[in-house]
Amino acid sequence: MAVFEEPIAVGKIRKIIRDIFFDNVKLSYGCTEPVAVGLSVAIAKDYLKGELNRIEILMDRNTYKNGLEVGIPGTHLHGFEIAAALAYLIGKSEFGLEVFKNVTGEIVSKAYEMKDKVSVKYENEIRLHIKTKVVGDNEVLVEITDSHDNVSRIVVDGNEILNTQSSVNFKKEGAKAVTLNEIFDYVQKPDEDVLELVRKATEYNIEISEIGLNTDGNFGRVLDGIPRYVAAGVDQRMSGALLPVMTVAGSGNQGISCIVPVSKVADDLGVSQEKKEKAVLLSILVTIYVKAYTGTLTPICGAGSIASAGASAGIVFLNDGSYEQIKNAINNVLATLFGMTCDGAKRSCSLKASIGTQMALNSAKLALNGTNIPCGNGFAARDVEETIRRLEVLTNSLGNFDEDVINFIGHC
């Protein structure tokens, strides 16, 4: 009986890992907070009758914080008002997180003219929650919760036509159900369609980084080494480039930060394509795993401190490190950079991401040489799994940060 049960258990774990991968790796144009607002408007438009009268948007404070100063794709503008107007004009619900992919200069001008029809407010809620009301001859309410494309409720003229409880919190609990060792085992023999998405993710995120390095004024142009590629990609994205980026755990910056450095190290080492893909996959899965504990939107910089932990794991893998060395690399990053805060999405995120990349490289080197931050140094635990669980507690303790930092964003 025991021999029969083990393959079932392994198969179940593999399915969980596969599911959380596809739930958390998605293509997007632009910062995912304005994108989520745009998606809610595009969905509401499907049910609207008559001419648009107004759009009212109420969101959680973290979404609001992240969208205040970030560039909107295809424009030189920022703000939720212009994002909502663009989505109303050219957004389609079936585009999902690619809702801004058809932005043109002509549409931007029209959106700017109608942005006064949009009102934006935030409430002191921690989880990702967007409530968009679109009013014409009728009234449509669309709610997005927990994940940027998780439409949880649609109400038309008071009639509820969708109300689902299948929130991403379920999926986060699924991610917590696995262990790092099980993730490492999966990476040794991943599914082919998972690797296919890894290849696409690498292609998209390397492309925006290389375009950034060829763009005047991009922060990455003045940096050195592998961190320059990460900074270039993030800066290009935050500046509003109309380019696709593969997001990881709800963030394109995290996608760039956990994919690009591993890909570049793989190229420098001259490893096989198979090994490169597995290393990138490991980086992605570790990033998703840690984010399951900290949450999608937090006071902590995901690109600088979380995705870099994933990158360090991938880099150790490329250097034939053991499971223990991979864990130590993750631990080294988290115990060092977790205090890097998120003060909203904007161009300087690229510099935070570049610092995280340098730390990923250093942590991998330390781990490969037998060094792990000792238990009891700060919040570092004996086992990295416990360190990660402690991150959840520490993240929740920073509740006032987001509320306070909103008062400073955009004010010199």
From TrEMBL:
Belongs to the UPF0597 family. Residues 188-394 form the Serine dehydratase-like alpha subunit domain. Keywords: Lyase. It holds the Pfam family SDH_alpha. GO terms for molecular function: L-cysteine desulfhydrase activity. This is UPF0597 protein NA23_08230. The keyword Lyase applies. It comes from the Bacteria. GO terms for biological process: L-cysteine catabolic process to pyruvate. The keyword DNA repair does not apply.
